[in-house]
Design a protein that fits this description.
It is built from three helices and 15 strands. It is mainly beta.
């Protein structure tokens, strides 16, 4: 059957309208992660320490900080998921993903390490899924992260030199008060699984929306890991290493198509 001229015009107009809606939609894609970048000495209270890093993402990332014979508080090193191998990827509030890794902290010094979902205003420091060697506490806190303690709630404590698997799953949902974004923290330790269950985010600062959003981790977040070593003045043998292996990042929402891709996909629906 042939289409009439009017049918063709109406059909074409409908295609254009749908395409424009897609093109003008806010970017809600999860970054296409393909690498990781290490950033060292965010805190550098011991600039004379000997630092060794290895980046074999996604197989393994390690950071070893040795000769921590300094006064002061700590050295902080981080690594970030990247989509270009050069700079940290920026995550939108509407991203959806699961991120996990095995973590082992070992050495003669003390410190803490874990995963991070760092907020736009503190992209290198805050938002920690934290494992601490001094008292074994395993807890999630800071930035936009809802607080949860596996130590206080589940009675789990970490022992230095052992492996623990950490997982976070972030879902944006509707990003409103009725259905805010949620995050679930999970650990696998000593062959036992523990989960926080999905925890909802509270509202962000209305004065900062736009551009950052409200009911989630907020736009321009960075995702990765941290390693903070505590200094030991007078102990030249103090050193600590954090190793992350079997690193897995899974996008739970595909990227919004480009204009040309949107047009092609829409036309395909009509053939």
């Amino acid at each position: 059957m042939r289409n009439t001229f009017n049918e063709k015009v109406v059909g074409t107009a409908a295609l254009v309208a749908v395409a424009m809606m897609l093109v003008s939609s806010p970017v809600a894609a999860t970054p296409l992660i393909n690498s990781a970048v290490i950033q060292t000495r965010i805190f550098d209270d011991c600039p004379t320490s000997i630092l060794t890093t290895t980046n074999s993402y996604p197989g393994m990332i390690s950071i070893f900080d040795d000769v921590l014979d300094c006064g002061g508080f700590a050295n902080l090193h981080i690594w970030r998921l990247s989509d270009d191998g050069i700079t940290p990827a920026l995550f939108a509030n509407a991203s959806a993903f699961k991120f996990s890794a095995n973590l082992t902290i070992a050495g003669t010094a003390e410190g803490e390490a874990g995963l991070q979902i760092a907020p736009w205003w503190s992209q290198q420091v805050d938002g920690r899924f934290n494992v601490r060697t001094t008292d074994g506490e395993i807890a999630c806190f800071g930035g936009r992260l809802p607080f949860y303690s596996f130590t206080a709630t589940d009675g789990v404590t970490y022992v230095k030199g052992t492996a623990i698997r950490l997982t976070v799953e972030y879902l944006p949902n509707d990003l409103n008060e009725a259905n805010p974004a949620t995050i679930e923290y999970r650990i696998l330790y000593n062959n036992t699984k523990y989960s926080s269950g999905p925890i909802p985010f509270d509202m962000g600062n209305p004065d900062e929306d736009p551009p950052y959003g409200l009911w989630g981790m907020l736009n321009d977040a960075q995702v990765g890991a941290h390693f903070q070593v505590f200094l030991q003045a007078g102990n030249p043998d103090a050193g600590l290493e954090a190793v992350w292996n079997e690193i897995k990042f899974i996008s739970l929402k595909g990227p919004i198509a480009t204009e040309s891709e949107s047009w092609g996909q829409i036309k395909a629906l009509y053939h």
